[in-house]
Every structure is written in structure tokens, then in C-alpha cells.
Amino acid sequence: MGRGPSIEGRKNAEDAKRAKVFTKLIREITVATRAGVADPASNPRLRAAVDKALAANMTKDTIERAIKRGSGADGAGEDMRYEGYGPGGIALIVDCFTDNPVRTVADVRHALTKHGGNLGTSGSVAFQFTRCGELVFATGGDAAKEEQVLEAALEAGADDVVNEHGESTVLCAPENFETVQQALAAAGLESEHAGVGMRPNNRTAVNGETLEALTTLLEKLDALDDVSEVYHNALLPAEAGE
Q: Do residues 217 and 88 lie in contact, with contact meaning Cβ atoms separated by under 8 Å?
């Protein structure tokens, strides 16, 4: 009779997954520090990264080391952005933080070409996205909750609120992100996700083999240590309500 995974095996798998999450969080803290200042109180992106790390039970010592590393004293690395297309012509933006751009671009190119995509030139897909602040709230389709988010967001200076799939997504200009975030928090609204990123201007529905290939590609890109964020313009079945 076959035996399932041992307790030790499951623990090792969980530890490996946790280490992967920590690697991503540390990288985001480092990138946020280099992009602004080393003080979370004056750097919204860094504060969001630190909050995320604390929520994942990262120690304050580890967080402080990541901030120190990102302050630039040790030349820890640099931000790199790669653009390209995935299966079905889906536009992709891959943001990385690396101390070896040659290695990183080779890894990204390999993942793309192996899973039905290709690496493009700088600016080849960026025009299909808009940089903006996003705050996502779980409203569950409750009209009263949606109205509460809408009123607080518009009063705080947000540009729009999109209600779909049980979530209310507040959109704002990057420079207004901190003000909007603070106002919504003061209104007693807790976001599921908040940050400044690249939002696609239009989405393309994918399914069947294209969906399967794209899902695999996104997983492979996310697994790369140097990758900090991946943006795409695919409309996945779950998002389309299928």
C-alpha cells in the first residue's frame, strides 16, 4: 500500500514555499528602498512592502537588513523591465531586480520562448498599460459596501472604482496613491491588495490551450528569483465570470 508524503516531506515543501515568498518580499523591500527613501513613513511603496512582510511573519531584523541592503551602500542590484508577448499574443511586462542583468534576461527569454512567447524591445507593449495606483477591497457584491468604498474613494481624490467579481478596485494617479490609501484606511476600509503598478488598458480573453500555456508561463516567470512582478493583459476565465 502506497504511503503519502511524510510529515518531514510536507514540512520541507512548506519551508521551501515560505522561503520563496520571503525572497520575493525581501526583493520588494530592497527595490522600494532604492526607488525612494529608506524611511517607510516617507516611502509609501516601502511601507506597503514592509506591511506585507510583517503579515507573512517576517522578522523585523530581516526587514531592516533588506532596507539597509536597498539603501545602495553595497550596490545590491538594479531594477530591470522586460517586455514581450505570451501565448495568444498576450502582452507581458516583467519587472525584475537583479545583480546580474545578463543572467536575468536569459532566464526571462528562456521562459518566454519555451512556453509560446517571445521577448520584445523596450516600449513594445508598455503602451498597452497605464501606471496607476490600485486598492482592492473584498465587497462580495454587497451594494452597501460598494457604495461605501465608492464614496470614500471619490472624496479622497480617486479617479474611478470598478466593481466586479465581488471586489471593488479603486484606481488613482500614482502621485495620489498615498493620500487615497490613508483616506480609505481612516474610513475603516481594509484593502486586500494595494500598490502602484501597470494596469492593462484592455484585456484579451484566453481559454483552452492558450490559457494552459499562459498559466504555465506565468508560473515559470514567478518562480524566477529575479522577478519581482509580472503584468499581463489577459482576461482569465475566473475574471470573466466563467
A: no
